[in-house]
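Predicting holo structure, zinc ion bound.
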Amino acid sequence: MSEYETVIGLEVHAELKTKSKCFCSCVNEFGGEPNTHCCPVCVGLPGALPVINKRAVELTIKAGLCMGCDINDIAVFERKNYFYPDLAKAYQISQLVRPICLHGGVTLDSGKFIRLNRIHLEEDAGKLVHKNLAVGTLVDYNRGGVPLIEMVSEADMSSAAEAVEFMTKLRHNLIYANIAECKMQEGGMRADVNVSVRKKGETKLGTKVEMKNINSIKAVERSILYESARQIELLENGGTVKQETRRWDDLKGENYPMRSKENSQDYRYFPDPDILSIKIPRESVEKIRKEIPLLPAERKKKYIEEYNLSNYDAGVLLSEKAYADYFEQCVQLYNKPKGIANWIMSSVLTIIKDEEEKVIRISPKNLTAIIEMLDKKQISQQDSRTLFAKCWEEDIDAKATAEKMGMLSSLSSGDIEKVVDEVLAENPNACEDFKKTPERVLPFFIGQCMKKTKGKADSELVKKLIYEKLK
Ligand SMILES: [Zn+2]
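Done. C-alpha cells:
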C-alpha cells in the first residue's frame, strides 16, 4: 500500500455574506419558508434580466486578496449549461475564461504552498428536498442565486490531513475578513474533492474521481481516506480506476458511482449575453485591500513574536474568531497577554469546550480585573476562582464584588512577608521539621499566617515565601 501516493485537488465553495442575492435584490438569508426568497430573475423566468451585485464582486476581490491572488482587470460571466431541477433556467451564471481572481494560494504550517488556480464568482443553485415516495422530490429556490465563490486549488495536496488544513485555512481567512460565515451545517461552505492515486515517483497523474458537495471538513477528510484506499485496492487487484463522479455518503462512510465525469465542454460555456463584462479598476482593488484586517496567519505571528505565546496556544485562540477577538479585547484592557491567554485556555475554554454554542459568559472587563487583582496580590488564588465563577454566572462587576465580599486584601506583599517572618520566628521547632518533611509542616505554617491575617493572605505567596526563607 505504501508505495502509492494520493493526489488531491479541492474546489471549495463559500456563500458570500451579502444582503441580497448575486443577480437580483432578493434577500440572501438561510432558511425561510420554501420559495419565499425568490423573484423572476433567480428562478429564471423568460425575459427576466440579471443585474450584478457590486458587493458580491467586491467580496470576491477581497477573498482573492486574502489568498494572495492576482485580480483580473476585466472579468466575464458565462453561462454554464446543465439540465437539473435545482437550476430552473437550465444554466448557472458562472465564470470560466476570465474569473475575478487568478493564482494565489495558501501556505500550510509545514511550509508547503498549496496553489490556487482561481477564485470565481457564481450563483448558488436551489435545493432539492427528497420526501417520501408519495410526495417525491420538491425543490426550494431560496438558495438559488445566492452569491457563491469557488476557490479552485491545483492538485497539490498529498494527504487528507493537508486537505483539512488547506480548507480550514481558507475558511478562517474568509471568516476573519468578514467575507463569508462558512457555516458548514447550513451548507455555507462545501467542497468538491478530486482524488487520484499513483505509484510513488510517477510524474503522470492517475485517473481522478470527483466527489461533489461534501459539507463538512471532517467528511472531506474521511472521503479522501476512503477513496484513495478504494483506488489503491482496485489497482492492486489489476483493475483500473474509472473517471467518474461518486456520491459520498457520510453516514455509511462509503461512496457510490453517480455518473461518468463531465468535462467543461459538456457544459457548453458561453458568455452570458445579459451581463456585461466588468471592469475592475486598480484603485478599487487597493481600496478593498485596505479593508482587510489582520488574517489568522499574521495574528499568529503577532501572538508568538510580540505576546510570547506558544505556537499551540496561539493556534487554539485563533481556532475561533470569537476566541481571538475576546483575547485581543482583554489585552487592550490589561497588557499582560501571556497571563490572559493562560486564563482563557485553562478556565474559559475548559468550560465552553463541550457546549454547543460556545458563548464566553464573562466580559473582558471582568476577566482582566480578576487577573489584575491577582497579579497585584490584592486577592488570593482561591478568591480569584470564586470571583471568576460568580462573574460567569451573572454579569456583576468583579472589582466591586471582590470589595463587597471582603476579598480585597489591604495587605501588600511586604506585609505578608512580615507575617511570615513572625510565624517562622515563633516556631523554631517547626522550622527544623520543615527541613526534613516540608510538605507535612507547610499546612501548619500557612494556617498560622492565615490566622494572623484573618484569612487575607494569599496562600500561594505564603508558600513561596516559606520555601524561599527555609531553603
Ligand atoms: Zn431573486
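DSSP finds 15 helices and 17 strands in the chain.
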